[in-house]
Amino acid sequence: MQNTYKMHWPAPLPQKATTQHPKCNDVLFLHYKVQKKLLRKLIPKKLELDNFDGDYWISIIGFEKVNSFSKLYDLNIRTYVKFNERAGIYNLKMERNGLLPWLLMKIHPIVFFKSENISNNRYLFETKNLKENSLIHIKYGIGKQIKVKSKLEVWLTEHSALYRGYKKEVEKVNILQNPRNLRRLKPKYILVDYPKYLKVFSRPPDVMHYAERLVTYSINNN
Question: How far is CA 160 from CA 8, 71, 94, 132, 136, in A?
Fold first, then answer.
């Protein structure tokens, strides 16, 4: 079974066709192994599930996003897929606090952000979604820097494609995503209560990371 952990850009990087996304700071990664049959129900049929050595994964990503106008807090729940043999990530859920996500949903519903109560102070990440009766509460410490990533760590944290599935269509966004100063995450208390993903998050994560920053570029290869 072939791994797809080499997530580098598959062609020469265009110098004038990249857009850097806002800075993402204090990034938490909680990675869970999941049964294939549970995961298959959650993604569009046109997308193929990707795996590492036969294991399938769902990840919780929490971070602070900073731009010129504001500071926002994000929560992503994602998995790992392939389309036409190109590996990438697929977001199962995207949440962001504040008024802006609510306005974006009104103007452009395809964005899929939901306005939630999310906070991310270093050593504590929390999110509450009263409508869906979901809660995440993570207290943590920061461990040693990972100077050389394992193949699994590269596969889980570095990506070159983002897929969006809308009904019968699949859209691919070319990206470069790489965490800076990746470290071990030292959990002190983890509560993940998401009824929709109860069978996945009812146990501790299999792998955990912390990164000072997550750098993402969108790439126009047209």
Answer: 6, 26, 19, 31, 28
Q: How far is CA 135 from CA 12, 25, 116, 128, in A?
A: 42, 21, 11, 5
Query: How far is 95 from 112, CA to CA, in rounded Å?
Result: 8
Q: What is the pLDDT of residues 106-145, one digit of tens each?
A: 444 444 445 556 777 778 998 888 778 888 999 999 999 9
Task: Classify strands 114-115 and 86-96 as parallel, antiparallel or unpaired.
Answer: parallel
Question: Topology of domain 19-219, per CATH?
Answer: Acetoacetate decarboxylase-like (2.40.400)
Domain boundaries, the chain: 19-219
Beta bridge partners of 76: 61, 94
What digits encode the pLDDT tens for the residues 65-113?
776 566 778 889 999 999 988 899 999 988 877 655 544 444 444 444 4
Give bridge partners of residue 179 from the DSSP assignment. 214
The DSSP line for the chain is -------S-SSPPPTTSEEEPPEEEEEEEEEEEE-HHHHHTTS-TTSEEP-BTTBEEEEEEEEEEE-SS-EEEEEEEEEEEEETTEEEEEEEEEEE-SHHHHHHHHH-GGG--EE-EEEEETTEEEEEETTTTEEEEEEEEEEEE-SS--HHHHHHH-EEEEEEEETTEEEEEEEEEEEEEEEEEEEEEEEEE-GGGHHHHTS--SEEEEEEEEEEEEE---
